[in-house]
TrEMBL record:
Highest classification ranks of the organism: Eukaryota, Viridiplantae, Streptophyta, Embryophyta, Tracheophyta
PANTHER family: OS08G0431150 PROTEIN
Listed GO MF terms: metal ion binding
Name the record gives this protein: HMA domain-containing protein
Length: 103
């Protein structure tokens, strides 16, 4: 599996403040993660970035010694391509409109 832009939801048992700090420290040590969100009451962790989902889950498991369950993985790479296509269309339109104004 190649490194793409993913958003992943995991369930990690966070019982106390010590567990919360362990998970947070493990997430901060991973440079591939762009965004992370810890929901202590719902015992969920949401991470987004360019990574391989299984590697992140294994890495958190090793560092925290907690069971990690992957609930959902979204591939956001396809939407990034669509956004880039929209930017090029907008840039072309801007160039055309500027040429009409100059003429």
């Amino acid at each position: 599996m190649s490194v793409k832009h993913f958003c992943m939801v995991m369930r990690i048992n966070i019982d106390c403040n010590g567990c919360y700090r362990k998970v947070k420290r493990a997430l901060l040590d991973m440079p591939d993660l762009e965004i992370h969100l810890l929901e202590k009451n719902q015992t969920r962790v949401i991470v987004c970035g360019r990574f391989i989902p299984q590697d992140v889950a294994i890495n958190i498991r090793k560092k925290t010694n907690r069971r990690v369950e992957i609930l959902n993985i979204q591939d956001l790479s396809e939407s990034d391509d669509e956004i880039e296509d929209q930017k090029t269309v907008t840039n072309n339109w801007t160039l055309l409109s500027n040429q009409k104004c100059l003429a």
